[in-house]
Amino acid sequence: MKRIYKKWSLVLFSALTLTACNDDFDALNTDPDRPEEVPSAYLLTSAQKGLMDGTLDEWNNGRFGMLWSQYWAQQEYTAESRFKLRDGSINNMWSEYYAGLDGSTVKLGGVMDLVKIMEQENAKPEEGRNENMIAAARILKVWMMQNITDIWGNVPYSEAFQAESGISNPVYDSQELIYADLLKELKESFAQLDPAGKLIDGDVVYSGDPSSWQKFANALRLRVAIRMADVDEATARAEIQDVLQSGVLFSGVSDEASFPYMDSQPNNNPLSQYLGGRSDFSLSETMVNEMLPKMDPRLPIYANPAVDSDQFVGRPYGQTDDEAAQMAKTSVSQPGPGWVGALPGVYISYSEQQFILAEAVLRGFIAGDALTYMKSGVRSSMEFWGVDVSEADVYVDAVSLNQSTWKNDLGYEKWVALYGQGQQGWIEWRRLDFGILILPVGGIHEGALSDDMIPVRVTYPTNEQTLNRINWTNAIQDQSSSNGWTGDRLDGKVWWDIN
């Protein structure tokens, strides 16, 4: 890859050693039964890495996001590509995102770590408090909570993380109310950040720079706003206009919010690490058949040529186990050279920001040239992946945009640019309905869906049915009346998904 990754600061090397073992945390505890407060800087580092690791790993990205967005197809054990997620993986994704737990294993970095940062810093005297760190924790919490509600719909929010206050069974808040609070949090945290104030200790995303976090907050605010544009156009318009008036935006790929992984374990990209040891996934026919005729120069980075033919060949999406076994892995393209250990984990990219601004123009929210913004989104995606400038020029010059089919035109290019961010690719397909994705060629897995359709949410964890049953039941009933659900199913649309 030709991309030059962000340099890691000294704090990154010292702080990330926490992920290798728990000995460092033990050393902080003078009494194992009465652990002292873990420094906020350590919690921030662990949250930044832990939340990104959990978003990008084999299960939550590989066997869910990258499959349901149809970037990849499964070569064996194909249930997930036929829309049947394992109960255990859903339980683990929920607990990992909320609490930093993976089954019975305690991992670093859930939203709970971010809440702890806010509590600890707010409890300090004003002169010892790091307002910039509080703001960074709030922004990162918004990033994760939006992902959570976009995956499941109504989820615990206002009463979450309050077990110490006696709330062990939190109510589920509506996505509409959650989105309103996400926007409020981003506006307030942007104002809370002081570029001339304290550096953010433990921050490995921006090396402690508050002004960069302001850009992150505004880019994320654009994402939240555009996602609700179909259901609440007035709010989406006002939020996007307000962000533009601030003038604080990503100005290039170097500004975007990403976690800077390293080449080697334990701090390399988790899915890259997994791909180095197994061959469960290939490029899907869906993706290859779209990119190949367009001569997209990202394809040789996203995929390797098939060993047998030295050509780019996608695997039909959603084969049965038997069908997949009959097609040699060497006959199809495997994930390509872009999957290096140091591939950054993207929270939100400059490319995505530019696509959002293009859409805002198309919706009449802001002035400007939509095609220019869209081409910028494509070009910056190519820059991220290390495409040669001359090759990028040829492709970008051919990019077109038709006002009557803009959701297809923009949706396709945004989908390709979101490669690697499987959950976001699937979420944007749900929102823009730009076609491309297909039903599994082997049929939908028994017990996954009763109708022939692509899932538009994930069912709630079985642990919630057992441990928080009353609130789980109420959440389903609430969405049955507001969103037309007929139970906790994959075909129940979330609040913003009205098309």
From TrEMBL:
InterPro entries: SusD-like_2, TPR-like_helical_dom_sf
Keyword Signal: yes
Name assigned to this protein: SusD/RagB family nutrient-binding outer membrane lipoprotein
Protein's organism: Aureibacter tunicatorum
Signal peptide positions on this chain: 1-22
A Pfam family it matches: SusD-like_2
Top-level taxonomy: Bacteria, Pseudomonadati, Bacteroidota, Cytophagia, Cytophagales
Key words of the record: Signal
The keyword Signal belongs to this UniProt entry's keyword annotation: yes
